[in-house]
Amino acid sequence: MPRPVRIAICQFASEPPRPDDRHAQETNVHRNLARTASFVADAAKQRADVIVFPEYWLTNIMADHLHLATEEEEFVEDLQQLAKKYGVDIVAGTIVEKSAGDNDKLFNTSRYVSKTGEVLGTYRKKNLWHPEKDYLTRCVREHTTFDTPKYRAGLLACWDLAWPEAFRPLLLDKVDIVFIPTCWVADDVGPIGEKWDPKAEGERAYLDSLVITRAYETECCIVFVNCGGPRSQGYMGRSAVAMPFLGCVAKLPEPDEQLVVVEIDLDILPDAEATYKIREDKMRQLRWAQSEENDHYRD
């Protein structure tokens, strides 16, 4: 029986901070939040079940603007109101937050807000890109899934995509869709990478292959949403949706800001699981490992 889900990919071009934002009543965060509302409204008109925003979509890159870090859950109420107003679930990209319970450490946090306004899932980025390690704290909690009325979901972010280990707990928990808000630009590779790949063609191929590979090996739908912006500033786009058997079912190959609604059928996932048996084999490996450990203690 078909299990259709309509997913709105929003390749949002975040307005960067202005020099006067530090003391202004309205900052780029507020301007980006206002633009977010228009995209949610558009997704609702296209009957989307969920809209997904990229990493850092409210603030843009924050390395030189840490004053824009918000208090924990500061914008959650705004997102809850948007979700309820338009009847659309929202994957709220990522927001850099000060954690009151962790001495104001900064975490890169993503949330899934349902159309009823309930926060169903929260994820703090675990695999930080190298420059992020200077100001963000990596989360040490295990990755977990959460249930929505239509599917079981998981949240990851950006550089997590490069790590198969990030997906394994979600695989074992029978995830249906993994949402991956991302801010991945061509100059992330630095001067060394640019020497070998000056047009970022290899980097684009890397992104494309990772999205498809993770869909197959996790036996789920991967929704990868990258930031939008001018190609001249290194933005690559490549937001995509991938499924086992089908590969890439939707892609935004250009970096310009755009919203596209994709309909998928999750009924494909049990067939993928029955064919590839990756989850089954992984569970068997874990049982063997546990059995060997128990034998060791008995000896």
From TrEMBL:
GO terms for molecular function: hydrolase activity, acting on carbon-nitrogen (but not peptide) bonds, in linear amides. Pfam families: CN_hydrolase. PROSITE patterns: CN_HYDROLASE. Keywords: Hydrolase. InterPro entries: Aliph_Amidase/BUP (IPR050345), C-N_Hydrolase (IPR003010), C-N_Hydrolase_sf (IPR036526). Residues 5-266 form the CN hydrolase domain. It comes from the Eukaryota. This is CN hydrolase domain-containing protein. The gene is Mo05367.
